[in-house]
Amino acid sequence: MKLPDHFLRYFLIAAAFLILGILFVIVQSAVVNHHLPPLNATELRLRADYHSHVIMPAMEKLFPKLLFLNAGVGLFILIVPLSWVWVWWFRRDLLDTIIPLMQGTVCILMWALGHNSFTKVYVTYRLLSWKMIATMYLPHGWIEMLAFVLAGTSAFLTIDALKGYLQENGNRESLHPGDICLFILGRVWKAGLVIFILMAIAAAVECRVTPELVRSAYNAALQQL
After folding, report:
1. 74 Cβ contact partners less than 8 Å away, ≥ 6 residues apart
2. CB 18 within 8 A of CB 110
3. Where do the structural domains in the chain lie, given as residue ranges?
4. Tell me: the pLDDT tens digits for 127-171?
5. Distance between CA atoms of 205 and 133, rounded to whole angstroms?
6. What's the CA gap between 151 and 127, in Å, rounded?
7. Rounded (10°) CA dihedral 7, 83, 188, 167
8. Is the separation of the CB atoms in 30 and 122 below 8 Å?
9. For residue 216, pLDDT beyond 70
10. pLDDT of residue 97
11. Residue 144: how many CB atoms within 10 A of its CB?
12. What is the model's pTM?
């Protein structure tokens, strides 16, 4: 199957802004928490017990919440930048201004997502180890991040398509707001479905697989003490 034109370019742009947000919050956390000492044996054992007896039972019930929260964020990134089109509806001469505003909104949302999603990475690294970070974030995290980047990529692609649609049909007297909504829906529904499926997989991994891996990592760390 042939990828849409500019897919790779927009994928890399969305990923770059996500990574910039992550790097920024890590630097922020490093400045604020640079004196954190690693956990001692007693604290590590308490963390391991808390994970086994509190976190793991709770995670078994969180699948619907995680799915709809994360899928909602992905769909937010996909849809919200397109809402600038309603400014164009009232000011038809602003199309060349509205398109960069849409694209800039995607970039801001990707940056904010990275910044808000990894606030605890540096603290976890200072308290525990890179192995613990890997088990806590990687099993499900890479799937979530892929879904978010695809949401940003699809938003960019839809903006390009919407620009062409408005240039071609913007002066048509019979153009109705519903026509624009149907055009956007026709462009985003497949991407939205893919995002939802990826988020369902990620939520299942986070609820079922990640807690077991974290428990194993805690046990391995305690055995090395």
Report:
1. 147, 148, 150, 151, 192, 195, 196, 199
2. yes
3. 7-28+40-223
4. 887 888 888 888 999 999 999 999 999 999 999 999 999 999 888
5. 16
6. 33
7. -70
8. yes
9. yes
10. 94
11. 25
12. 0.92
CB contact set of 73 (below 8 Å; sequence gap of 6+)? 113, 148
Q: What is the mean pLDDT of residues 17-35?
A: 91
Contact 106, 156 (CB under 8 A): yes
CA-CA distance, 20 to 81, in Å (whole number)?
A: 19
* Burial of residue 35, with CB atoms counted within 10 A of its CB: 0-12 exposed, 13-18 middle, 19 or more buried: exposed
What are 192's two structure tokens? 């939205």
The whole-angstrom separation of Cα 128 and Cα 148 is 27
**Hey, what are 168's tokens?**
């071609």
Tell me how far apart the alpha carbons of residues 101 and 82 are, in angstroms, rounded to a whole number.
9
Look up residue 99 and give its amino acid: I
**Residue at token pair 């088990």:** 135
The residue with tokens 């913007």 is 170
- Gyration radius of the chain's alpha carbons: 21
Q: How far is CA 218 from the centre of its chain?
A: 27
* Cα–Cα distance measured from residue 186 to residue 209, given in angstroms and rounded to the nearest whole number: 35
Start-end of H helices in the chain: 7-32, 41-50, 56-59, 63-79, 85-90, 95-117, 121-127, 130-169, 177-204, 210-223
